[in-house]
């Protein structure tokens, strides 16, 4: 199996959206999922600057994994950071180090942009995700609590 990790391009929009929707099902927020392929195209590829960036894992022309991220340009360290919003690999392709390859691409992107860190959240019930992040050397940050204000 030949896996290629690359930056997403606009012609990937429909496949990216499908994986975003699949992630919403997996993470149990599909009832509030409001993203459409048009939104993905506009926000990620036609808007300047884009609202998000994306790496894809491709196998024989099919996108089997995505990593969606955006930059946090201003931090206390006076260096940008990257916030990873979504990492998702199709179930039948899991446990083949595809997530690691996507994370490696993100680490390279962070270094290229002189970022101080990569940040993300993970659901506490996602045991496979927690094990994956620990395996690649990530550590849980318990210094802060997540809050949100719904509007």
What this model shows, in words?
α1 packs across α2 (37-46). This protein has a 5-stranded mixed sheet. It is globular. It has a single domain (3-135), classed as Gcn5-related N-acetyltransferase (GNAT) (Aminopeptidase, 3-Layer(aba) Sandwich). The chain has 151 residues and is an alpha+beta fold. The chain has helices spanning 13-26, 37-46, 98-112, 127-135; strands spanning 3-7, 53-59, 62-72, 81-89, 118-119. It is built from 4 helices and 5 strands.
CATH class: Alpha Beta
CATH superfamily: Gcn5-related N-acetyltransferase (GNAT)
Q: What order do the SSEs take from the amino end to the carboxyl end, as H and E?
A: EHHEEEHEH
Helix content: 25-40%
CATH topology: Aminopeptidase
**Proportion of β residues?**
15-25%
